[in-house]
């Protein structure tokens, strides 16, 4: 699930260059969509997992668009601060006593109905297969987008938005599309997470969760699928290794992250930058594959 979240955030941060710190809010929207449509309390809807998951993905994508519309003129630190505020607003609303009758309040939503296949409830094995299929689907979507005209537009925006706009890229539409697709992947992960745990609550969608997802793409390498997978395993495995030093675990993790950013700022497995330049030896040799000579 962290791999899916990392790929979704990489669409927004790694490809289009929009620093979003409230990313976990989209995860929460997906989780609560599945929870509210598959639990006896508070609404007793029981629509089934698959319709709930579809609703969660659509609502997450819509939230990404609605968040992006007023933020098109913001970039860098300003964008990060506003999106951080959005994530905290969602968490506080979910935790509010005022919305207890609608969202379950601080207690969250329990006894969420699990998916069924041929009349049989999903167990750990079925959920493992479902998560693997979701990861493969997310990788397919990410790779296809990254290697497409849309992906090149995102990369141009990341490198220099002014130049991208001058070359004919519709920067606003491109950034909104990145937010919507990245948010949709977060909604997918959130829906599966809620069904698998049969519970979701506001404390699971805190700022620290957003920081964890951002950390994994920094460690693994922004814009890189293998780097995202490696970063997810490192992020989830390293805290377990440091569990013996429980009192200093966060300190050690922060120090290691700092060392990582200083020694390998592009990540463990950074993405390869697209290039149109020919190797110097081909230029000197007048390689016919490199075009015509003057």
Structural features, described:
The protein is mainly α. The protein is built from 13 helices and four strands. Helix 1 runs parallel beside helix 6 and helix 2 runs parallel beside helix 4 (77-95).
Summary of the model, kept short:
This protein is an all-alpha fold and 294 residues long. Helix content is 64%, strand content 3%.
Features:
294 residues, mainly alpha, 13 helices, single chain, two-stranded antiparallel ribbon
H/E series? HHHHHEEEHHHHEHHHH
Q: How much of the polypeptide forms β-strand, as a percent range?
A: under 5%
Structural class: mainly alpha
Instruction: Please give the largest β-sheet.
Output: 2 strands, antiparallel
SS summary, helix count: 13
Beta strands, count: 4
Query: What is the approximate shape?
Result: globular
Distance from N terminus to C terminus (CA atoms, Å) equals 54 Å
Radius of gyration equals: 21 Å
Detail the topology: elements first, then pairings.
Blueprint: H1 2-15, H2 24-36, H3 49-68, H4 77-95, H5 100-103, E1 109-110, E2 116-117, E3 120-121, H6 124-146, H7 149-159, H8 161-166, H9 171-197, E4 199-200, H10 207-220, H11 225-241, H12 249-263, H13 280-285
Antiparallel strand pairs: 1-4, 2-3
């Amino acid at each position: 699930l962290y791999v899916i979240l990392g790929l979704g955030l990489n669409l927004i941060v790694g490809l289009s260059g929009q620093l979003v710190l409230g990313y976990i809010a989209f995860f929460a929207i997906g989780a609560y969509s599945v929870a509210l449509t598959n639990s006896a309390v508070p609404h007793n809807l029981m629509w089934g997992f698959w319709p709930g998951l579809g609703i969660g993905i659509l609502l997450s994508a819509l939230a990404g668009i609605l968040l992006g519309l007023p933020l098109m003129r913001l970039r860098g630190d300003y964008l990060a601060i506003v999106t951080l505020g959005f994530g905290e607003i969602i968490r506080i609303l979910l935790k509010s006593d005022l919305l207890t009758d609608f969202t379950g309040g601080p207690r969250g939503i329990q006894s969420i109905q699990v998916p069924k296949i041929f009349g049989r409830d999903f167990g750990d094995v079925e959920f493992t297969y479902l998560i693997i299929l979701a990861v493969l689907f997310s990788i397919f979507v990410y790779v296809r987008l990254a290697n497409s005209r849309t992906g090149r537009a995102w990369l141009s925006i990341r490198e220099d938005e002014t130049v991208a706009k001058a070359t004919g890229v519709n920067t606003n539409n491109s950034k909104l599309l990145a937010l919507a697709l990245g948010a949709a992947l977060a909604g997918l992960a959130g829906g599966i997470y809620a069904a698998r745990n049969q519970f979701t609550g506001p404390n699971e969608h805190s700022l620290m969760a957003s920081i964890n997802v951002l950390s994994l793409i920094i460690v693994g390498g922004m814009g890189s699928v293998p780097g995202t997978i490696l970063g997810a395993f490192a992020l989830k495995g390293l805290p377990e290794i440091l569990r013996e030093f429980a009192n200093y675990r966060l300190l050690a993790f922060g120090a290691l992250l700092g060392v990582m950013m200083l020694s390998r700022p592009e990540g463990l497995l950074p993405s390869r930058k697209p290039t149109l330049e020919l190797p110097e030896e081909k230029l000197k040799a007048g390689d016919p594959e490199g075009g015509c000579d003057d």
